[in-house]
C-alpha cells in the first residue's frame, strides 16, 4: 500500500522521526491522525444530536441512547455528565440532587 496526497504529506513528520530513531508517542500520533482525517461533519452531527437528546421515556432508555451517542463523540466526562443530568426529567434531577 502506498500513501498519496494528503496522507503522504501528513505522515512525513512521523516517518522522519521513526527513520531517525526519535520517539513517537502513539497517543499523539492517533490524536493527530483523528484531527486530520476524522469526519468532522459526523462529529458535528453527533454534537447536535447529544444537545437535542432529552429523556422522554425511562431513565434507562435515555442513558443507553446518551451513552451510545457520547461514545461516538469523545467528549471528556465532566461536560458529558453535566449535559446528561440537565436533560433528565425534572423529578429524576431532583432525586439526584437529594441522593
Task: Walk me through what this model shows.
The protein has 99 residues and is an all-alpha fold. The protein has two domains: 1-38, no CATH class; 39-99, no CATH class. Helices cover 75% and strands 0% of the residues. It has helices at 5-19, 26-37, 40-52, 59-73, 77-86, 90-98. Helix 3 (40-52) runs antiparallel to helix 4. It is elongated and about 60 Å long.
Could you give a quick summary of the protein structure above?
This protein has 99 residues and is mainly alpha-helical. The chain has helices at residues 5-19, 26-37, 40-52, 59-73, 77-86, 90-98. It has two domains: 1-38, no CATH class; 39-99, no CATH class.
Secondary-structure element series? HHHHHH
Q: Poorly predicted ranges (pLDDT <50, ≥5 residues)?
A: none
Number of distinct beta strands: 0
Described by the principal axes of the CA atoms, the overall outline is elongated
Structural class: mainly alpha
Please give the alpha-carbon distance between the first and last residues. 56 Å
Q: How is the main sheet built?
A: none
Record the SSE blueprint.
Blueprint: H1 5-19, H2 26-37, H3 40-52, H4 59-73, H5 77-86, H6 90-98
Protein name: Retrotransposon gag domain-containing protein
Organism: Puccinia sorghi
Key structural traits:
99 residues; mainly alpha; 0% strand
